[in-house]
């Protein structure tokens, strides 16, 4: 335990061995719960026998915590004085017992169920709501202060009554006047909690007793086992609660840490039995009493009450613990560790142990799942030996890709800055002596990339995920579809086959057309998946094509299988092959199926696997030339013959449904050839694409010869025929010419209108989220003079005007009269989003700040009173981080009244801009990132790259947006092992590395990259890189990949 806080809690201290282990563990444990790094000097500590505990209020006042007694002792022991609230409590308890004895059994069941539900709701909902507000904003203390209950001047009678109630319950070491407001408020809050808890317990018992019955049909042995199990569970419940109270004392039992701090809480004893024992196994008595009462009503009421208690734990307790004691963990922090060979030398005595990946949240706060406070010294000594001799990961020497594989993207090698060059050279020198330092962050992103966990991270363009959904869908369909009639079953198979036809030809056709026009599939994988430095150029193409091949093959197979399923359901074997045309239909159908198989095999023979899977839509390395061989010598699109089998199956089955499916399939294939494949072929091969196939040429030649023969035999009719043909041809030519002119004129006139409509549609879509707001206006607006309100934008320190770089903080000055509402707020809106200057009718989308921050609890005003000492009030607010717009454009500032949407003053416009480099090379891209990344990270020194700490970021000076305690090492202290680990981390850190507090900061970087370089990335990709150089290389290769123009990397 740190010496600076040891005075705060002397009743229970860690043994020396535990202190030693906690200092070595490198993380916050259960014994590290509060007040790390306190710089207050405490009074001289008395001896341990006096059991003295020191507390500290949020404003830093240290006081001696008096002795308190548990509720059972003070309530039931006649030797203790009873306060008025105690008498009320006893009266309510007696009232319950009297009603149980008086009311009939069926009436008491209903009454006590409702009565128990009331007290349970008061506990879980009421106390949960009140304690949450107290934990966040000290609401209870402020309410007591606002109402003056403990103020001798404003409410002397109430203060004296509360003073007497508390003094009667406390011991001789209690002094009401000397103790701070927070402690006395907590004591008063305890009285309310006692009333709720005791009545909640007794009402449940009365409900269980009123439901008591002896189940019929059970043997005597079962009854004995039922009673013994119930008594054991109740006894276990009492033991857990008693032990838990002995550990946390009244301070933890009554949530005293919401009011003041009392040193470190050591969660040992029963807290090592189960997570949150007071809320989990501590309710075993519910089920024990359910067994004894033999009632399902009691069991279900117990389950509901226990579920409500878990809701209290999840919604209040865990967030409160995380808010007060949790350590903020950075995302993408590269904590280096060495491979096994790094410690193989005789001089090596220790090995760095890999730490868990920062930023991964656990299901419950670490404060209740930390290191044990009862670890045996022998085990601890053994652990220390293991830490010195066994590294966390055993990496063989041969796994050094950086020393064996050369980079394939040599033209993207950057011209590093001085700091980066020095770092690189130093790393190269040390690499000869020891392996390259690795980090768990890099290894995780190397082997895991948005892997599907159940249905999380699902991506239907990833073949494995598409197959997963397909298997789940078919499995669920087989289980859920009821028994159907034969006709209904046949129609179901028809629509099933029809769906796969549309998926294969239309769905995948649209996907392939998007790939041809904008490289949609490649963009998708480039955006959503991280690729290493060696794979970023070809990785997205290979992965997109690999997944396309699997999905295309799967769709094609399912198309044929679904069609065969329909044929199987509709086919019936003929009774007499000689009657009618059954034999002819089967023969012709078999021939058509054979033609289909032959044409498909011939097409594959010519196309090969590359053409079969449309490789020219993805890869440009293959030579773009055409060879008309095989079946393509005769036909341009032999795929049309691939539908022959469908018509053949229609003949064989004799089904109209199969025939209609064949027609739809033929039309869908024609649409695919016309709208997907042929346009891509013309774009790729241009004039080298022939117009007529061999078969067509032969037919045309034969027709031409026959025409000449007919012409020679009918010489006398030739002039007349020529005249008719010329007239008809002229008529068609004129119609076609007029139609073409009309279409061109229509497109020329409607083109600007279409562009305007598209632009307006984009604006409307952008405003759709903004307009999801119910405008509220104040009724007392007439009593306020808008001329006395003023809001003005402080010009940017870099531009000297109302022009701010994307992410640069925006400071706004405001002025308001004395009677202005404490719930006033200032919002930031796009210019044009609100037509009215009197009332705001669009949402701020989170871009707003309260004029008085202490008056708001999130988005809800608290409504505290204020003192008025001045004729007017002035102040400033600063928009930064999440309250800033991360989209370039023109915005305005609006001052609103009383938490409503009445506009009292506005200023603007201000411009949000982002600098775009004139040319795209490594130097310009990296310089742009050096400006954007620190702004996206709130200019937090603990997050931004070391290479950016001396570089301008557009916001003037760089200051941390977090308190020092949140930006320091996870151990919360700047000395000892934590400081040494932090220093070692800084030495191993690449100057271009950066980290995040949340994924939202990564989204800001993605938005900036999209607006500057027109390259779209998912936040996971930026988090995986978390390095300026790596991100700059990725942007360069991505632009080359998407545009086909190699960037200038000579800069």
UniProtKB/TrEMBL annotation:
EC number: 2.1.1.17
Enzyme class: transferase
PROSITE patterns: SAM_CHO2
Pfam families: PEMT
Subcellular location: Endomembrane system; Endoplasmic reticulum membrane
Membrane topology of the entry: Multi-pass membrane protein
Catalytic activity as recorded in UniProt: a 1,2-diacyl-sn-glycero-3-phosphoethanolamine + S-adenosyl-L-methionine = a 1,2-diacyl-sn-glycero-3-phospho-N-methylethanolamine + S-adenosyl-L-homocysteine + H(+)
Pathway(s) served: Phospholipid metabolism; phosphatidylcholine biosynthesis
Keywords from the UniProt entry: Endoplasmic reticulum, Lipid biosynthesis, Lipid metabolism, Membrane, Methyltransferase, Phospholipid biosynthesis, Phospholipid metabolism, S-adenosyl-L-methionine, Transferase, Transmembrane, Transmembrane helix
One GO process term, biological-process aspect: phosphatidylcholine biosynthetic process
Amino acid composition bias (Acidic residues), ranges on this chain: 377-389
Ranges of biased composition (kind: Polar residues): 16-28, 396-407, 950-963
Protein purpose: Catalyzes the first step of the methylation pathway of phosphatidylcholine biosynthesis, the SAM-dependent methylation of phosphatidylethanolamine (PE) to phosphatidylmonomethylethanolamine (PMME).
Family: Belongs to the class VI-like SAM-binding methyltransferase superfamily. CHO2 family.
Protein name, as recorded: Phosphatidylethanolamine N-methyltransferase
Source organism of the structure: Ephemerocybe angulata
